[in-house]
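ESCALATION

Customer reports they have been waiting on this structure for their group meeting. Please prioritize. Original submission:
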Amino acid sequence: MDLSDDQIIERTLSGETEAFGLLVRRWENPIYGLSLRMLGRDEDARDVCQETFLAAYRNLRKFRGDAKFSSWLYRIALNACHTRLRRQDNGFAQSLDTEDDDGRRVEFADLSSESASEAMLRDQRALILRRALQAIPAEMRQVIVMKEYEDLTFAEIAEILQIPVSTVKSRLYTGLQQLRARLDHLRSAL
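Update from on-call: job pushed to the front of the queue and completed.
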């Protein structure tokens, strides 16, 4: 039986604390993916993912149901990402330019038939894309990640970020332009 997020929340709040694990299993990959693309490092993404679920569990009674649980959870994750990014800006974290290939862990395709040169080319492209994505402002990066990687609608993104849909579209358009320019720059440097 597939329970809705709201049903799982009800069970958790009524004392079935292990029910929250269902929400973690359901939303762990999307929250991790969002965090990895926002932060660029596997270790940071895993930490933010864990912080997100701990904060959600601790504050579950404050969830009013005005928005979808997923929107509330994405908001918590984005806040945690922004906090970590501010710390990085202040020099408290390692540079995002480190060659961290842990990003491959989010690959779900069957790569068993891939040659070594194809794998190297895929990894190089992924690294270039991660670097380009990290080079654009966080407010645009988060919209690109939610739209292009998490496949959220404009309305869902607007709800999560608590901004108008027109602002979401504007940030996406501007962010994609900046991403394209950054990718062109990185490609020409190779």
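Sent to customer with the following note: The helical segments are 5-13, 20-39, 42-58, 69-89, 116-134, 138-149, 154-161, 165-189.
Escalation resolved.
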